[in-house]
Each structure stands twice: as C-alpha cells, then as structure tokens.
Amino acid sequence: MSNLREYQNRIADIAKRSKAVLGWASTAQFGTDNQFIKDDAARAASILEAARKDPVFAGISDNATAQIATAWASALADYAAAHKSMPRPEILASCHQTLENCLIESTRNSMDATNKAMLESVAAEMMSVSDGVMRLPLFLAMILPVQLGAATADACTFIPVTRDQSDIYEVFNVAGSSFGSYAAGDVLDMQSVGVYSQLRRRYVLVASSDGTSKTATFKMEDFEGQNVPIRKGRTNIYVNRIKSVVDNGSGSLLHSFTNAAGEQITVTCSLNYNIGQIALSFSKAPDKGTEIAIETEINIEAAPELIPLINHEMKKYTLPPSQFVIAAEHTVQAAYEAQRE
Fold first, then answer.
1. Calpha distance 106→126 (Å, rounded)
2. 315 with 170: CB under 8 angstroms?
3. In 103-126, which positions are buried (b, 16+ CB within 10 angstroms) versus exposed (e)?
C-alpha cells in the first residue's frame, strides 16, 4: 500500500485555505447574531477586520486588503444566491494559493512563506504603473470572481499551485485479495468490468453441452480457485437462459426443459452447500450447444475470510509551471495616445 501522507497533507491544505477564504469572505458578512449585515460600510469593515487576521495579507495596506476582500465577498454572495451552495473547497483553496503566490515571496519546500519578506513592489506602491494599466490589487480582486464565473468550473479540477512546481496526486482503489473477477493488486475504477463485492454469482458450464454427456459437475473451486460455501435456497439452473426454481434448501433442485426436438428433459441437481459443488444428472443428454449456467450466492458468513478487501495506491505527478513573457515598447496609455495622434 502506497504512502498517502502527501495526499493527506494536500487535502488538509485545501481545507485550511478554503476555511480561511470563507472566514473573511463569507462569515464576516454576518454579525454576532448570525444576521446579515445590511449596512454596506459596516459589512465592509467586518470583512476588512477578518481579512487582517489572514497571514496572506500581512504587510498589505488596508486599502488594498479591503479592495480584494470585499470583491471576493461579493462574488461569493452572488454565487451562493445563484447556486444555493458555496463553491467547492478546491476552488477556494486554488484562489487563495494564487493570491499568496502574487503577494508573498514563497519558497520551494516550505509552507512558511506567510512569514517571509513581502515583495518590495507590493510593500511600496502595490505595483502601480501608468494610467490605463490595471494595478495589482484590482487584478487580485478579480481572481475569485473570474474563477466562479468560468463556464468550465464544474469540468475542471482545481488544486493549490505553488510558484515553482505543483504536485498532483492520483489515488485509486485496488483489489486487496483475489476474489471474483479480480486478483490482488488489480485496479478497481470506473472502467473496471467484473464481479468483486457482489456475492450473487452466475457461472456458465463450458463443457456441459457437448450433446453426448448426461452428467455434469459444477464446482466453485473451478471458478474461484478454492472451495466456497453457498447459501441454501439461493441456487438456480439456467438452460438456454431460462431460469429454474431455486433449490429446496435440502440439497436438491429439479428442473425440466424442452430440447429442439420437442422432447422434455429433466435435470436433477444434488448440492453440497459446504464446498459449493453441484452434481447435475439429465434424463437425456441435452443438445449440443445448449447453454447451461448456474446462479448461486456465496455464503460469506460461513467463510468470512473470503470477504474482499479494498486497498489504496497513489501516483504522484510533479508539474513545473510555464512562464509567458512578452516585452512592450510602450505602456498601454502611451499606445492609446499614439493611436489618437
């Protein structure tokens, strides 16, 4: 079984970040009496006070913090009103990480970045530039609204991504024991087709319809690799996919069917419930190609050691982010002025 510690740490990080966002962007909009703060100024003050407690805003001016926090709070309120629910924690955590990446000098292997030195440009003028170019606080204020308004949000997986690299974890189920259609270690996912936890089983007797044999023996051992007890009163025989009555619970099962010539054939079945074995005796050999199947149910109470196990394994993928760089000869405002001239 793989070590899931990194995956569990990722889940904890998502929960921590999403809780932080909800703390100052949602909960802060309600007073101590759990009533919505209707006064805009009082609500904005409550949001700002709560946002100051988030280390991600440490060293950021109140004006910039208020700009970002109130925009996120409005986006959350609009989303909740439209969808009657809050966004997924992964989305909130991803936005919080993006906010942190833009504000704080993070390091590769530590999450203590909240205590690191702030970017010089942030501490000074919040990266303000010439007129006509969006300043950093306005850009950061749009992170969550844009994310919540994305048409593909429900089809995407959002993860908190650090500045230097991101780790994606794939956790999947594997069979912990050999049982049914699967051997120990086989992957169990949406594409798996087979029987594992279902105790009701159906087996086709391959060698029972050669046209000459009047007897056949069914053994659970041939299909499950070991003797498997079966439940009383839960066994049927299918002849050409026509179902018989269940066994009588005392080790016997009788069934009649008609062959291609219109002759009636009777099959008598003797069942051994303890080892999962059935002896079939036909009054006349069934026609060649006749499909004969047995449907029965495993008695798991008599053999609890057969209960199938599910284990988990994990794959880790490390992805470095891509950078997009372009140089501009003029500022946006200068370009507009040049066009007018």
1. 17
2. yes
3. bbebeeeeeebeeeeebeebeeeb
Q: 62 is written with which tokens? A: 């109140």
pLDDT in tens, the chain (341 residues): 456 788 888 899 999 999 999 999 999 999 888 889 989 999 999 999 999 999 888 878 888 899 999 999 999 999 999 989 999 999 999 899 888 887 764 333 344 444 444 444 444 444 444 444 445 778 889 889 988 888 777 677 666 666 667 777 788 899 998 888 898 989 998 888 888 888 999 999 865 567 788 998 999 999 988 899 999 999 999 999 999 999 999 999 999 999 988 999 999 999 999 999 999 999 999 988 889 999 999 999 999 999 999 998 888 888 776 656 566 555 555 555 555 43
Report the alpha-carbon distance of residue 290 to residue 212 in Å, rounded.
11
CB–CB of 47/21 below 8 Å? Answer: no
Collapsed DSSP state (helix, strand, coil) of residue 136? helix
Domain ranges of the chain: 5-165, 198-301
What CA–CA distance (Å, rounded) separates 318 from 286?
61
Residue spans of alpha helices (H) in 26-173 = 40-52, 62-83, 89-103, 120-125, 136-141, 143-149
CB 71 within 8 A of CB 64: no
Structurally, at CATH architecture level, domain 198-301 sits in: Sandwich (2.60)
Can you tell me which residue has the tokens 């495993």? 298
**104 CB-side CA count, 13 A:** 23
Which tokens belong to 117? 């030195």
Q: In what order do the strands lie in the sheet with 264-272?
A: 215-219, 277-282, 264-272, 252-258
- What global pTM score does this model have? 0.53
Name the residue among 315, 291, 84 with its Cα closest to residue 187.
315
